[in-house]
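Problem 12. The chain below contains 313 residues. Write out its predicted structure in token notation.
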Amino acid sequence: MSTVLTDCRVPFAHELIELARADERIVAVCNDSVSSSNLGEFRSLFPERMFNVGIAEQNMVGVAAGLANAGLIPFVCAASPFLTGRATEQIKADVAYSRANVKLVGMSPGVSYGELGPTHHSIEDIAWMRALDGLPIVTPADDEQTREAVRWAAGHVGGVFLRIGRFKVPSVSGGQSPAFAFGQSNAVRAGTDVTIIASGVTVSRALAAAELLADQTVSARVLNISTIVPLDAAAVIAAARETGRIVVAEESVSRGGLGGAVAELLAESNPVPMRLLGVNSFAPTGSVEFLLDHFGLSPEGIAAAARELVGRA
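Solution.
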């Protein structure tokens, strides 16, 4: 695991610019969030392809759907709590139901806004978007996955929800090529006693937890789920059968989130003991690091949950 930390909004913006240079159909739509979405350079390079609708998220999604219907490829960039919370109806009707070619980019999800509190935390976005039929959900875990996921999204015909974190993370792809493949998970560590399933910012923490467990003679597999919808069912079921225990760690609510998706799948196919770790209540005020630790999403917290499962045997 690399020691270099990256804010994934940076590779997102760089990749979007490269795609826009090659394809004049690509445009950006935002809600007065040019700075927080890291779109300043995009606006400078392509001012006629930057649509800032102001703080009007419902209109933002509707405008994007109209642009898509005119043959353009809009990337809608906004803080995830406001994109998914304020514009749920438009996402449902104008994008998911209408199968519009709109790329919804939820910036700074989870508890990325730290001290700004629950109004700015986006812990429900995966659950809300999972409820919509036919909307892929992608949560890249590092620089490499972000770049490849953006390229995939641009080429995919139809709606996408892409969750881009701002909390700096190390590379976890380990030179895998491709680092991202839609619908496929990455087994970033082998293990036989328990599987830790993680996505986004929690993948590096799951890897650190696996190191702690190894010191205690517990062999932990780590599965990076970068595509939540559709879930890599084969990899999850194989992990349940081969390790017999599952811990899910996510920067969102487990109810309807990644934990919910994994639990639903295994309840029908291969029930095993599970622990679902997530931000499952309104969070106190504090830094991102403090909040992740508070909800048991530290390496130590994830390792403790895994040890508890192993200890049941």
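Discussion. Residues 9-22 form the longest helix (14 residues). Students who got a different answer should revisit the alignment rule from Section 12.3.
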